[in-house]
Design goal:
globular; 12 helices; six-stranded antiparallel β-sheet; binds alpha-D-galactopyranose; Immunoglobulin-like
Length: 404
Amino acid sequence: MNRITFTLMCASVAALLGLSCAALENGLARTPPMGWNSWNSFELNINEDLIRSMADAMVHTGMKDAGYQYVVVDAGWKNKTRDSSGKLVADPSKFPSGMKALADYVHSRGLKFGIYTDAGTEDCDGAGPGSAGFESLDAATFAEWGVDFVKEDWCKSDGLNARSAYTKMSEAILAIHRPMVFSVCEWGDNQPWLWAPAIANMWRTTGDNKDCWDCGQDTKRKPGGYPRGWTLILDDQRALQQYGGPGHWNDPDMLEVGRPGLSMEESRAHFSLWAILAAPLIAGNDLRSMHEQIAEILMNKEVIAVDQDPAGISGTRIKSDGLSEIWARPLSDGSFAVLFFNRGQSYTESRVTWRDLGWSADARPSVRDLWKHRQLGKIAHGFSASVPSHSVVMIRAFEGPMAH
Ligand code: GLA
């Protein structure tokens, strides 16, 4: 669907529901935010030394040069109570130097600093006071500390209306005049893709991601999301493509790339699909000890370029026979990223024709393999891929000369 069709469709759906299609224009997140977040590997076991060493690792591993920017401290940083003036304070046993000093350190490494709070009365896992009723004070505190990214969760939110609760924080952030990416983490419960584009730079479309292929199918929903394998999360994204775009992105949750529960091929597939979806790329592995192949996955500049394409049009699944899928994403230079994804247990052969991409039958695009970093030449009719189990083949096809 092109943007004009989307705008028309959004306008009619919005009129019916009394919502708005206007997108937040705070100048941030023109491409999907990239960074690292503490939750997936460390949960509540975080402290200032850990975050500092992760900022160092972002730089010396090359992640920063590859485009990763935000170092986000998730739940677990807050003191259990506010101070006498109502301000949030850091847990002194874990963050004795305070959050401003930590933000300064992250900035000194040329990176940006992100922080976590909750739209309800308490953070998930009771990890600290929520921001309900304190939005202006908390936004001002974050600005004073030098925060560049605010993730707001949805625990202890009984009785709250999601749209108005998140709008309060969004307005508080705008009023404070510090550029802060606003990341809504409402797990997709109240169809945030219909209202969050107007108030946020990204919104979770789903419960939590987990480092497994498809575990969690039977998990009962519980506050704090319901962790599921990334292929199940992927399945929930297919109707949402039209809602993301520059400045406002669907967020199918942070990456499990390099986490213990995924094979190397599964990590590669996960990363490729998040790039096809134009998803934020927020790594969650321990960057200080990542395997060389994981570093190659997270820093594959050609796949990152697909994710970060300035047109910001998400890809869609164009073919599926149950196990073997083909996804395609149109890119701003007129090329297509095409992803062959094998969910099965053995090799599959899969074929896209250029007509599937909307090109004429006599098109002869240049084709480049984005994982092998190899030019495959000009190819007529279409492209056939042989895809290993739980893996992907990813190409970029361009009808003119390719600039690589
Ligand atoms: C929820 C969120 C996660 C993480 C945890 C922290 O589950 O969805 O991303 O922030 O809370 O407790």
